[in-house]
Amino acid sequence: MTLIINLLTYLVGIIWLAAGLSGVINPAIFTESDWASLHVQITGTLGMSDIRSLGGLFAAIGLGVLYATHNPSGKKGWFSAFALLMLGLAIGRTVSLYLDGAEQTQIIFAAFEYGFALILFLKSRY
Known about the structure:
By secondary structure, the chain is an all-alpha fold. It has one domain (2-125). The protein contains five helices and no strands. The chain has helices at residues 2-25, 28-31, 45-70, 76-100, 104-125. Helix 1 (2-25) runs antiparallel to helix 3 (45-70). 22% of the residues are buried.
């Protein structure tokens, strides 16, 4: 069980790192692609900066998850914090689904975020 949770935790870290770096390199991935959750047009350098900073945050979360998974001694509390971050994303998206209407992309993202929160919570316990 521990091996499976470790592998899933590494996968979560890699996904967040890749998503974050892609947002830093090409902010249009977060805003203008078919599967993007933001669906906004970036009109200036401030908008590009904001989207890149969001990508940097996602990349930092991914690096933190990978670091804590690779160096487990004393890092169990990190996974609780990361699980809360993922849960916050998922709850915010769920409220939006309820208030703003459901879109397939948002439902998929919410499912991933709840899954990531569960994986990280389990990692904090093992």
